[in-house]
UniProtKB/TrEMBL annotation:
A molecular function GO annotation: hydrolase activity, hydrolyzing O-glycosyl compounds
Organism: Halomicrobium zhouii
Protein name: Beta-mannosidase-like galactose-binding domain-containing protein
Start and end residues of each Beta-mannosidase-like galactose-binding domain: 42-113
Keyword Membrane: no
Length: 619
């Protein structure tokens, strides 16, 4: 749930216009009615859009303050009230709160401008359509009224380690008068969750202005938050109350680390299987769960509060990128500032599991290459020549201390912390994933892999889709296209899991056009690759080590924290065999070796106490 407080809310009616940015209040000949929050399609492609509204003094008898609260202000903005400029803003994921010196009647104008630096992320590229990047107020727009003093904002972060869990609290108070008081901080479980409520008091002493109160609140006998395949998702409401003002936010108790064992949540290993999200929606979280993913990567953009809320509720970890993608230098201090603000804005989210800084800082090494031995040599030559100065990125990553970081996301040759590998799409065949990982010491963390596919016979919108590359690989036809994509994703996902990759994320969950890298079409309908990826992502699954003609091992992958006894059945063109065996926690067991011929249909089933996982191959 979003933060709640004791304020009175006022919604607004807005009009908008494309404008030329200048130093004064934006003006326009014609203003059109628009929905705010939102991304008005009529302004797609415009570099600056102004939003205007009028309202009477919203304060009631006990109110002293009126505050404008905007969320998702993309990308740079200025705010005027009654002709006076009040604020500037430059980070859409950081809520903008502006104290309003309201009069009896008021005119409010917000000018939103396209990115003016390197931190527009995916919304400053051609990987999303223009109507997804409209300068505007995307997530929320209200006016709050408050008494004096009042709690302006509440930032909380769970702390789980030795001893009882605690919640670190930062509560910002605004007052017009000198203040010497005490704030009440209380925490209580949401719904049917174990752990009694706790109450603390913290001193608030300040001159007129703004002050931030810090305090740690202990949670006795608290219940921990887990990814959906390992446990439940209990959460706790933290309330800060000062006189007649209060504000509440929700968090979950969890810790996240990364070491040689992989990703650890609450000290327990998590086999992270994920998908990349581009311009994500709340519905995408449930879709990711259906694909057996327990992680989503926010690809070069920041997820909205509503999408984070869905991840918290459904137990999906978030690998959060800073909005920085593509080759080119960037301002390190600006990057550090944005990283700190990003953590503050999302630190209450138990789903937040990792942060990356720079996505795709160098070009793809596989561009223009084929599948032969000479192409491998050319790939190695390109990797040898590749270079990247990671000093600036590491300086930004150093300010992130609350979750693990994978600062550089990119291809072989630059020593990425998380690899982008596209065997079977940009280079070679899907089975070349092992060569890529072995030759370039990749594979512990894989941020992207996959292939593109059509979702319609004659796509009109091919955003984030390389039609030329697709034609060289597949030819034409939706069925052939989707079958090829499914084969690539399934093969690479299974090979990476067999290798023991700690974190992997397919690119991508959903298309943004009529064709693309998604395993779902733009409208959420399933391509053939969706079921193939879901099968490859089953926590316990039987796979072929080499699904090509010749000999192949039948292997059981068991990504569970406890040993188990499983029954494995394999069927090759109607000839069925079965075996019961024991497999350890996060184990890999070779069951048998079978001979395969072109055209064989192979089915593998693995039965556990939780059910039966099926996997199918056409050799």
């Amino acid at each position: 749930m979003p933060a709640e407080n004791s304020a009175t809310y006022m919604s607004l009616e807005w009009r908008g216009a494309a404008v030329e940015p200048g130093s004064g209040v934006p003006s326009a000949t014609t203003w059109q009615d628009v929905d705010v929050p939102g991304r008005p399609v009529k302004f797609a492609g415009d570099d600056a859009v102004a939003y205007r509204t009028e309202f009477a003094d919203p304060r009631e008898a006990d109110d002293e303050h009126a505050v404008l609260v905007l969320e998702g202000v993309f990308a740079h903005a200025r705010v005027w009230l009654n002709g006076a400029e009040l604020a500037e803003h430059d980070a859409y994921f950081d809520p903008l709160r502006v104290s309003l010196p309201v009069e009896d009647e008021n005119e409010l104008v917000v000018e939103c401008r396209a990115p003016e630096d390197r931190f527009g992320g995916i919304y400053d590229t051609d990987r999303v359509p223009q109507n997804a990047s409209v300068p505007g107020i995307w997530w929320g727009a209200t006016i709050e009224t408050h008494p004096d003093p009042y709690v302006e904002s509440l930032s909380v972060a769970p702390r789980v380690g030795n001893g009882e869990p605690t919640v670190a609290v930062e509560a910002t108070v605004v007052t017009d008068q000198p203040l010497d008081d005490r704030m009440t901080l209380s925490i209580r479980p949401e719904g049917d969750v174990r752990g009694g409520g706790m109450m603390n008091r913290a001193a608030v002493e300040t001159d007129p202005g703004r002050v931030t109160v810090t305090h740690d609140v202990e949670v006795r006998d608290g219940s921990l938050w887990w990814p959906h395949d390992l446990g439940d998702q209990p959460r706790y409401a933290l309330r800060a109350k000062l006189d007649d003002s209060e504000r509440t936010t929700v968090t979950g108790l969890r810790s996240v680390d990364y070491d040689e064992d992989g990703l650890l949540v609450n000290g327990e290993r998590v086999a992270a299987r994920g998908v990349n999200l581009t311009d994500a929606t709340e519905a995408d979280v449930e879709r990711a769960v259906r694909a057996n993913a327990n992680l989503v990567r926010a690809h070069a953009h920041v997820l909205s509060p509503e999408v984070y809320e869905a991840c918290d509720e459904q137990g999906v970890l978030v690998w959060q990128d800073l909005p920085l993608t593509g080759p080119g230098e960037f301002d390190v201090e600006r990057g550090q500032n944005l990283a700190e603000r990003l953590l503050r804005a999302r630190r209450n989210r138990p789903s937040l599991a990792a942060v990356s800084v720079h996505d795709d800082p160098t070009p793809d090494l596989g561009e223009g290459l084929g599948t032969g031995a000479v192409d491998r040599l050319r790939y190695r030559w390109r990797a040898w020549r590749a270079s990247y100065d990671r000093g600036p990125v590491d300086s930004v990553a150093d300010v992130v201390s609350e979750v693990p970081t994978f600062p550089v996301v990119g291809p072989a040759g630059i020593g990425p912390d998380a690899a982008t590998i596209y065997p079977g799409w940009t280079f070679g065949e899907a089975g070349d994933v092992d060569w890529l990982c072995d030759r370039f010491d990749l594979g512990d963390v894989v941020a992207e892999f996959g292939a593109g596919a059509l979702a319609a016979d004659d796509p009109a919108d091919e955003t984030d889709f390389d039609a030329e590359r697709h034609a060289a690989r597949v030819g034409s036809g939706v069925d052939e296209s989707q079958d090829y994509q499914a084969d690539v994703l399934g093969t690479v996902a299974e090979r990476l899991r067999l290798r023991g990759t700690n974190v992997l994320a397919a690119y991508a969950l959903r298309d943004v056009g009529d064709a693309g890298m998604g395993v779902l079409a733009r409208d959420g309908s399933e391509k053939t690759a969706f079921d193939r990826l879901a099968a490859a992502y089953q926590p316990v699954q039987g796979v072929l080590s080499d699904p090509t003609p010749g000999e192949s091992d039948v292997v059981v992958i068991h990504d569970r924290p406890s040993p188990a006894t499983v029954t494995v059945e394999w069927d090759v063109d109607g000839e069925r065999e079965q075996e019961e065996l024991k497999v350890g926690a996060y184990g890999r067991v070779d069951v048998t070796t079978i001979s395969l011929s072109a055209g064989d249909a192979v089915t593998i089933a693995v039965a556990t106490d939780d059910g039966v996982a099926h996997n199918e191959y056409r050799i």
